[in-house]
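hiii, so i know i said id send this last week but things got crazy w the move. better late than never?? heres the sequnce for the chain we talked about at the cafe, plus the structure i predicted for it. fair warning i was half asleep when i ran it
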Amino acid sequence: MPASAGGCTVPAELLAFQAPLPKLLAAVSQGKPIRIVALGSSSTWGAGATSRAHTYPVRLEQELRAAWPKSDVRVINAGVGGQLARHMLARIDKDVAPRRPQLVIWQTGVNDAIRGVPIAEYRQQLRTGVERLRALGADVVFIDQQFYPSFKKLKDGPLYMDAMREVAADLKVPLVQRYRIMQHLIASAQFTTATLLAPDQFHLNDRAYDCIGRLVAQSLRSVAAAPAPPPPAAAPSAEMAVHRDQAL
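okay and structure toks below
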């Protein structure tokens, strides 16, 4: 069944997260303040938007505030244009750790592909980043590359998306399939590249940021609505063990 958010309709499987987000789930269920850091490059910062109010982190925060009114939800925009995965790793201590987020949404990959960062290095940087962010007590979600017309001319471009998918599957990191989402929005004639992308035909425009923000919020709401796993069974006490042995 297709899923729709704010007029952007995509197949439901493109929004389904294949791994849990226990830190976020606990914060939502307990009504705690929720802090989400959007770590990324220019399409997190909001290049192509007409104002800061139209970036995807702002739209995401608005959607989650409406969905979780009992929680103080804040989405911190930690995007810096032009950065590679390794640059974002170097910013974790300054731009992420002080916020104490329950969730970090990490958008990266397109600049690494454009600049030809060795794929093995990129893959390892993703793994290192997930380990460091989880060590801070945060869940992690990946966002892959955006769809844009000249992507097909980019040498090895799909291999960087494959690398992110491999790391996501191996480390159980949910993945926002931004490329496939945008591709579907165009292929299904809901948009054209001209109406979904900024004039540079590379960055997102207001409408695209709105779609991504709403759709990511829908994925997060679905995860938070899932029942929490039951606590592990407590080990029997020494006294209970004695009684059990006497009964045998």
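btw The mean pLDDT is 91. thought thatd interest u
miss u guys!!
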